[in-house]
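Dear colleagues,

For the upcoming journal club I promised to circulate an example of a predicted protein-ligand complex. I picked one with zinc ion because it came up in last month's discussion. The inputs are reproduced below in full, followed by the predicted structure.
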Amino acid sequence: MQNISKEDYLSAIYKYRETDGTIKANRIADKLSISNAAVTDMLKKLANDGFVDYKRYKGIRLTKNGEEYAKNMVRRHRIWEVFLHQIVGMPWDKVHEEAHNLEHGASDELINKMEEMLDFPEFDPHGDPIPDKNGLLPKQRHTIPLSLAAKGEAVEVVRVNDFDNSFLKYLSGIGIKLNKKLTIKNVLGFDKSMIISIDNKEVNISSTIAANVFVHRKN
Ligand SMILES: [Zn+2]
């Protein structure tokens, strides 16, 4: 079994919490593919160290310290992803694992230098926002899941969920990438799958795929 660090927990809480800032322990277990008992143990430790507010059966919340810590980890991770994607030329379905191995070791100085060299990217290769040195996030973009777009709409891809590499690979295979413009040709009533047009070619995608691609409305 892989070793899951304190940093991984904090990043997962930061990334997957609800809009009210809380997350349930079982959801963390689910996201990190570990047992509820392991999560409970770690949450106690993190609460002792002042990183989370944890009360059994209640939503978990990052403290101010925890928030800062998690943001910094996410920042490191996403800057590595940009580096691996743009400079090393790795596809977006490969950068997550590599970045994960690299994010712990690098000094803040190296991360800051890389950020500068990359010309202060605001988003990672999956469209996730990168906190700057002071923890500030780029302006939020208004997006909807592609699954909510209607027939006839023109949209632009802004972000994709990055939890599954085969999903990302599939997307590249059909021509979906960031900033790509799509037109919804049809939404099929019986299973909500969609026929979309990418580069003048029509592709049929399932509602699950459409729910994990986030777009900006163009018209
Ligand atoms: Zn990413």
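Two points we might discuss: The chain is about 40% helix and 15% strand. The beta strands are 22-23, 52-53, 60-62, 144-145, 154-160, 181-187, 194-198, 201-205, 213-217.

See you all on Thursday,
B. R.
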